[in-house]
Design brief:
alpha+beta; 5-stranded antiparallel β-sheet; 21% strand; elongated
Length: 153
Amino acid sequence: MNPQSIDKSPDEGGLEGAISMKFPVVLHKDPDSDYGVIIPDVGGCFSAGETVAQALDNVKEALALHYEGLVADGDPLPQVHEIDQHFQNPDYAGGIWAVVEFDVTPYFGKSVRFNATLPEQLLERIDQTVRRDQRYSSRSGFLAAAALRELSV
């Protein structure tokens, strides 16, 4: 994950909003076959579809199943990298690149209330950002997204 890979959008669940990650994907199509989709940052997770749109929609289902398996097995969740980091990989030569947004909120567990102390000016800057940026529905949402960015470096 990186700062550009995380998006925050409103939702009723867990973290006072959904935390979406933007996964780079590469599509390949051989003659007389469906589009195959590889998710470079999620080893062993693949998808396919008859059309590009269908193949990209199916990526979300593949990610959900893969993430459920990781959580059930107690394995760490994948880190997402910038799409640029994958361009030179010969395994993806000739592919069509896209980005798929996927809500990772359900895989982090339940929300836990905690008490934090921050300098007044920093808290005001956070509040200003939350008011003007629709990705953040609350201070908690902002702090969760910021923590994920920092922890994924």
